[in-house]
Amino acid sequence: MVSGRAPNADLTAWLAVVAGAIGALMATLDISIVNSSLPTIQGEIGASSTEGTWIATAYLVSEIIIIPLTAWLERMFGLRRFLLVMAALFTLFSIACGLSTNLTEMIIGRVGQGFTGGAMIPTGMTIIATRLPRHQQPVGTALFGSTLIMGPVMGPLLGGWLTENYSWHYAFFINIPVCAILMTFLLVGLKPTAMKLDELKNADWLGIAGLAAGLGGLTVVLEEGNREQWFESALIWKLSAVTLIGFVMIGLGQIYARRPVIKLALLRNRAFASVFVLGLLIGAVLYGTSYVIPQFLAAIAGYNAQQAGGIVFLSGIPAAMMMPLFPLLVARIDLRVAVMAGMLLMAGSCWFDTTLTVQSDGSDFYLSQLMRGLGQALSMLFLNQAAIASVKPNEAGDASGLFNAARNLGGSIALALLATLQDRRMEFHHWTLFSAVRANDTGVQDWVNSQAATYGAGDAGTMGALHAIDQTVLRQALVMSFTDEFVALAWAIAIVIPLVLLLRPLPRGHHQMAMH
User: 379 and 282 in one domain?
Assistant: First the structure.
């Protein structure tokens, strides 16, 4: 027993922590659970492939907006009341999504899911910081951090399995029993607190409006930019202007508001600023690879949604295994060493995936996915701890909102840039490879002549053989573009690794306390 140590948390406190973890799991899982079901959903609600992407984008946009607002809403309504309302509304919006018969209904439901689900992510860290004594926070952090990793990797697998074996509707209806458990734990684990409606009078309305316009506009620009040919589109110009105005309003709120809705002053703390930037890159890898790998397996290896989801899920295994070990690790390993090891593992895993070929299948991702999962677990769990340790306890809510917004924003930026990179590099590789297939090459001519009969006689047969060459070249170009995406992710991680040296070690005595 350590003298002066705070007493251990009681059962109700742990129920509150578990509730926070469940809420974060559902919110992060629902980002990706529709990805594998998207083609089926689009067909049933009559949406085109371009329109169908808004089923995912609508959730992401609203979630990114609400996360930084959560600390303010929590102060105004009280943590228990706020989470109960959000969980109940999340359930109702999930039902609305499952019952949708057209795109408009689905998008409204997904926006509602994003707002209510996103509010449950940063509150998990707030519960840990306020309901657990310092020496037990590593256990809570491990539980919470694991859910943030498991949600995105479980989503494609669970969504694919439910769609293949039951119906896509259950990808939304599954939230009903889980949210019932969540609300029960919240009722037992958290004490009611008085509302502070005077927060409305003193609210940073400039900042609130700026967050909606700035983060919402930025996310849509990133998501739609590639499809709209970026600044060749009037829509992208208008949304960029909205984004700029929004960020100006956020800046004015920082200057004039009595209590800014998002405390950007925390970024002046170099330790927390490093956590923020590293969180951006972890989000980029977490959501970026969950997007790229299923695409590769579907296009090159012919995998269905459930099979591709199983490969993505591999990266969640190390996170699940590390959860019980984390309190011991945090007591023995320097935080900076652990985060650096995690980032190096993630960079190495992406580099391993630069050797993909047209013959590659899911087995080629086994090692890299396990490496990536271990790296994500080390980085995420220790960065969660670093975020709490680098700020005062009364700033935990603001820090949590910024850190979680960074992770989601990193994912959104990665998805947009990876989609653009894939299109540009595939076109580059296509024409580079095609230019190497010379029409006057006797080998090429002999192959075309030999294959022409397969596609019919005369000009039709020749055109068929030439089309077959083009398809082979396109397939190879696609594989090379996927390789370029993994190269980009590996370099992006490597560039930010030095920021680990700026992280603040845990307070003296924290390591010893973590063991009890």
Answer: yes
